[in-house]
Amino acid sequence: MRDVTLLDIFEHHIAQKYLNRSGLSHAIAVSYHAFNLAKEYHIDVDVAAKAGLLHDIGHYSWYKNGKWDYDLYRRNDIHPIKGAERAHKLLIRLGENPVKAKEISLAVLFHTDSFLPTNQIRRTTLQQIVKWADEKDEEEGGLHHYRTIHYEKARQSILRLDEWIDNEQALKIKNIH
To answer: In the structure, what pLDDT confidence band is assigned to residue 70 with cuts at 50, 70 and 90?
Structure first.
């Protein structure tokens, strides 16, 4: 039994605000990629899917003269730092296991090299999976942040992934016994 589901996260007003800002369709796609990669690498699919969903929750809108400025974003953005903080606060507020909340937040922090002076980071398997999941869904010029999805379709996608996670966890428990 999970303390917090993806639906719990998705429906929270703070998550809604920031997931919509950074691209809800992208967040859901990354969550699915992270789930599949976690299965492949035999790590916790729940933690991976949550980190995938929340990976861009720290995005700030970089506009210049009323228009998105991708170069300004690439030079100045530190969204993984803000995202790790937001993800942790949100997860704790929702009642997530504190150890899992920290692990998810660190995966959010290290999902990209864009804010680091060098890319000589040694990532955990989870952190690497979230990075790969994000890269699988990237589009040139940051266009992946602008794909749209209707609320109900997004909600149904989240519910489906929650069901997959529950099934995986049930299989894992069954195989232990």
So the answer is: low
